[in-house]
Amino acid sequence: APAPAPVNVTAILEKAGQFGVLIRLLQTTKVGDQIDTQLGNSNQGLTIFAPSDGAFANLKPGTLNSFTDQQKVELIQFHVLPSYFSASQFQTASDPLRTQAGGSQGSFPLNVTATGNQVNITTGVTNATVANTIYDDGNLAVYQVDQVLLPLSFFASPPPAEAPSAP
Questions:
Q1: Domains of the chain by range and CATH?
Q2: Where is the FAS1 domain (predicted)?
């Protein structure tokens, strides 16, 4: 049997419509390419939380532009879980869930709570709800979320510098 066609996350989002900002960020950060490569090379699958253009429009003006290029990469990676979750698996997922952001340290966790069919995601900055399933093939799940998931670490102030010791 021929191998299944490679999944293209950008094409899935384009087909769904209303994800222009996310698509642009996936392309400019190259995270879209990383996702496509990972899906081709991994059997763990991926889960993507996709904020709609409306969710990006709800951010404070200038928020995205205030992020460095590295933060934009981390922001997009923060919307990606390094394994596949079906909608029903969120019922039994144990928090916090590790995201692609923050590398192996997993310093960008998400908390997910499911009540009935409603799935809520908390980042410490954002409380979002999964609006619907855009795509699910058993290896990749793409869920529309009503808010951009903002990592707490972007907004936490750095620890104060230690006072110099008295001579």
A1: 9-152 (2.30.180.10)
A2: 6-149
